[in-house]
Amino acid sequence: MNNGGPAKPVGTDEVEIREWEESLDSVLTDEGPEAAGNILERLRQRAQLAGVPTAFTANTPYANTIPPRLQPLFPGDQEIERRIKSLIRWNALAMVVRANRVEHNIGGHISTYASAATLFEVGFNHFFRAHTDQFEGDIVYFQGHASPGVYARAFLEGRLSVGQLENFRRELKPGGGLSSYPHPWLMPDFWEFPTVSMGLSPIMAIYQARFNRYLEDRGLKPQTDAKVWAFIGDGETDEPEALGAITLAARERLDNLIFVVNCNLQRLDGPVRGNGKIIQELEAVFRGAGWNVIKVIWGSDWDPILERDTEGLLVQRMGEIVDGEYQKFSVESGAYIRQHFFGSDPRLLKLVEEIHDEPLRKLRLGGHDPRKVYAAYRAAVEHQGSPTVVLARTIKGYGLGEIGEGKNITHQQKKLNEDELREFRSRFGIPISDDDCADAPFYRPPEDSPEIQYLRARRQELGGYVPSRTVRAKPLQLAEHDELFREFLEGSEGREVSTTMVFVSMLRKLMRDPEIGKLIVPIVPDEARTFGMESLFRQVGIYSSVGQLYEPVDVHTLLYYKEAKNGQILEEGITEAGSVSSFIAAGSAYATHGLNIIPFFIFYSMFGLQRINDLIWASADMRCRGFLLGGTSGRTTLAGEGLQHQDGNSHVLALPIPTLRAYDPAFAYEMAVIIKDGIRRMYQENESLFYYITVMNEPYAMPSMPPNADEGILKGMYRFRASENKKSTLRAQLFGSGAILREALKAQEILEEKFKVAADVWSVTSYKELYRDGSEVERWNLLHSSEKPRVPYVTQCLANAPGVFVAATDYLKVLPNLVSRWMPRRVASLGTDGFGRSEGRAALRDFFEVDSRFIAFATLVELQREGKVDSSAVQKAIKELDIDLEKPNPLTS
Ligand SMILES: Cc1ncc(C[n+]2csc(CCOP(=O)(O)OP(=O)(O)O)c2C)c(N)n1
Ligand SMILES: [Mg+2]
Fold first, then answer.
1. Half-sphere exposure of 447 (CA within 13 A, CB side)
2. Which of 118, 142, 241, 411 should be mutated for ligand 1, with most atoms under 8 A from CB?
3. Would you say the C-alpha torsion 66, 68, 72, 75 has a positive or negative sign?
4. What span, in angstroms and rounded, lies between the C-alpha atoms of 179 and 467?
5. Which residues surround ligand 2, an ion (CB under 5 A)?
6. Over the stretch 857-879, which tens digit does the pLDDT of each residue have?
7. Would you state the pLDDT for residue 326?
8. What is the pLDDT of residues 120-152, one digit of tens each?
9. Does the pLDDT at position 3 exceed 60?
10. Which residue among 109, 231, 236 has the greatest number of ligand 1 atoms within 8 angstroms of its CB, and so is best to mutate?
């Protein structure tokens, strides 16, 4: 029975605990942290074996990972670095403020860089190594909306002019401006990696680091200690892509990878985890995944206080507070902090009794303390065996004071009045007078000032300026490689093959080529067998950084699952997002590494553009090159798989991506022409393009290439088979694409035999190309109205093509409709709008009304509209072709 007071839990006797603690302290002092760690681990195991319930936690206390005594000396001149940082802060702020004065609501962010400044600057002054002739350089993904800070630094470095800063977010001004965020497309000499779509840069960085290793293991680049740095926001980590691939980084022991998470505890609307602790949450996630986690929570100001806290009360208190409350402390007075933070225990109050309210309020956090940040980065670059994440605690809008520091509205804060500007100026000691301040002028100290000298010297020491994008690869000098593709131009001599099989044999041949073979990088997300690519496993091996540590179950078979350290295939497992990130690393290697890597990323077409189009958009921004292959494509060509798998969408989703050439080839020779020309354009002519090619799994005999078809194949259409009947007055032009081309050919026969209609059949390899050409011509004509009008390619093709027009595609009807206005007459479009079904091909093509019967039927209806046949011909077609007029509409059923 206890007599009133709460029972004291067993094992909490203070004297006993103290004894244990003292033992630990003495091991620590006498033998060091490693010894202490070993003893603790032994004790933990012993306790576990004895049935002691030891709670699992991947967390460490809410304190800095690196204690002060293990902190290296800061090698720089802290005062001058502070002044440089202040200047950058000012110019970054001025950029946004000025832009919004000129044009209301032009946007821009102040508070993100304000929180990240120290995290960036320590990197710029001490870590980020530029590319030089001797060294490949580190790769840095900058937090996208912190771009004003990166520009402001480049301005101090003398790389950007006042004029350019003036035109931040006004890129169309004469002389050009600066893009809102990192976009290599818009600033190809500056930005290397697009990062502003949240979550993409972490996953791209992981696969970039892995790809760097792949290149080393395959002997394509020398081994170096170059690092990949990714600066991301704490709110950003909510994106599934941000954390979705972190186990890969640990599994691959990517100690060339460093994440820095700017933990300002805020995102756009408010706190990231008001009721929790984002740093602890991320620590557990990353540690659980096998990363080296370095927490940088408290600045040096806290060290003496923590030292006085011999009982561990302060760290305990730090761990109790939720982020929402921490955010509140960042906007409150010292008195408030004393009362609400330290006031929970008189012993805590005692720890800070000698500190006045104002210094108490200003106690600096870890992410704002260069010494702490330097220590973390140094540990990160020296760490071996796993990737590192630095979780750095900062304040959003740091330095903005009343108008934004730590406030929920701070993310959107872009306007400062005169007083606010003056306050900011004074806080950071910018030498601008009160009068001038109102204008928010840019400020760069003279060239011979200590600041500029120091900054230049630091960058020189680190090899040059970062970021900076240069295309290092020389154009490929290829000997004539017709031979490689010749067999595909000649047809399959009656042998039935699918375009996927054709693609795989083409790939195999390319990989054997002595010139470009080694540059080919096949990427698959666990679909190699689906596409019949398993023969490549044995031929070139699957890349594995550790080789193959087991005997594969199928080792006795010809096509066994061969993993090898120099394996060429990137078998990524079931991650299209990861695979496309590899594609991005490979497709930009011509710039990043000076290597003309040619990636072929083949995926289930429905899980391509539909699922990962934002990453594909980013690869376009990044000027990636290479081939995307949409496998098992077509809404009615992939039999059986049903609604989620049957792709009738991807060619429509490819439309918005400006540099993506999209093709839907039907035959081996079409694919050969497209891939051959793609290699020429991308790697010999250095064009910033990439290709999307759909390949099917329907086997049929591949014809040989008709004479002179190349040009049409590449431009988007050519006449594949003209009718031999030149006398008929009933004429039609049938447009087929991909697998549906063969339906058009069958329709041609039906029309001829049953209805005396002479039809020509066209293969439309790319509606997107036709559309691009048509719009380009139309625009030219608009702007050159007094000159002889140009004629779109579609119009040229069809100028003398008699009869009615019917188009059929395995994709949406919108594709033929896109180009219909450049056709000399109306076109009836058949396509596969709607949800797929699990069914066989014939039933699917009937359901979606794209088979030969519907093509023939639509032709007759068009002829009737034109008055060329009467209704009895249409009635005959309905009967003979068994057309169900009451069938459900596939679009709505
Ligand atoms: C995919 C995506 N969704 C939304 C946004 C809009 N957005 C830009 S910044 C931001 C908040 C960022 O918060 P955090 O990652 O914590 O960065 P901080 O500014 O706090 O450093 C949001 C939602 C975006 N850029 N990308
Ligand atoms: Mg944040």
1. 2
2. 411
3. positive
4. 14
5. 233-235, 264, 266
6. 999 999 999 999 999 999 999 99
7. 96
8. 999 999 999 999 999 999 999 999 999 999 999
9. no
10. 236
In sequence order, what are the beta bridge partners of 629?
602, 693
Q: Where are the beta strands (DSSP E) in 331-396?
A: 388-393
- The rounded distance, in Å, linking the Cα atoms of 640 and 594 is 44
- Counting residues of the chain whose pLDDT is more than 90, the rounded percentage is 89
The response to whether residue 614 sits with its C-beta less than 6 Å from ligand 1 reads: no
pLDDT of residue 6: 60
Among residues 759, 748, 754, the alpha carbon closest in space to that of 726 is found at 759
**pTM for this predicted structure:** 0.95
Q: Is 149 in the pocket of ligand 1 (CB under 6 A)?
A: no
Is residue 517 within 8 Å of 509, Cβ to Cβ?
A: no
Closest ligand 1 atom to the C-alpha of 236? 15
Judge if the beta carbon of residue 233 lies within 6 A of ligand 1. Answer: yes
Kindly state if the Cβ of 267 falls inside 6 Å of ligand 1.
yes
Q: Is the pLDDT of residue 2 over 60?
A: no
Give the Å distance between the CA of 722 and the centre of ligand 2: 63
- Ligand 1 atom with minimal separation from the 396 CA: 20
Spatial CA neighbour of 763 closest among 837, 667, 680? 667
Instruction: Calculate ∠ Cα 464-468-470, nearest 5°.
Output: 105
Rounded CA-CA distance 124/83 in Å is 14
Contact in structure between 824 and 722 (CB atoms under 8 Å):
no
Query: Using CA positions, which residue lies closest to atom 7 of ligand 1?
Result: 268
**Closest by CA position to 696, among listed 770, 788, 604, 823:** 604
Q: Flag whether pLDDT at 5 surpasses 60.
A: no
Q: Are 294 and 265 in contact (CB under 8 A)?
A: no
Element (H, E) at 589: helix 589-592
Query: According to the model, what pLDDT value does residue 236 have?
Result: 98
Mean local confidence (pLDDT), 15-36: 91
pLDDT of 672 over the 90 cut: yes
d(CA 156, CA 451): 9
Reduced to 3 states (helix: H, G, I; strand: E, B; else coil), residue 762 is strand
pLDDT at 103 over 90: no
**Does ligand 1 lie within 6 Å of residue 396's CB atom?**
yes
Amino acid at 866: E
Q: What percent of the chain has pLDDT over 70?
A: 99
What values do phi and psi take at 617, rounded to 5?
-60, -45
Pocket probe for ligand 1: among 145, 238, 269, 398, the residue whose CB has the most ligand atoms within 8 Å is 145
- 262 CB within 6 A, ligand 1: yes
Q: Is the pLDDT of residue 62 over 70?
A: yes
pLDDT tens profile 410-420: 888 888 889 99
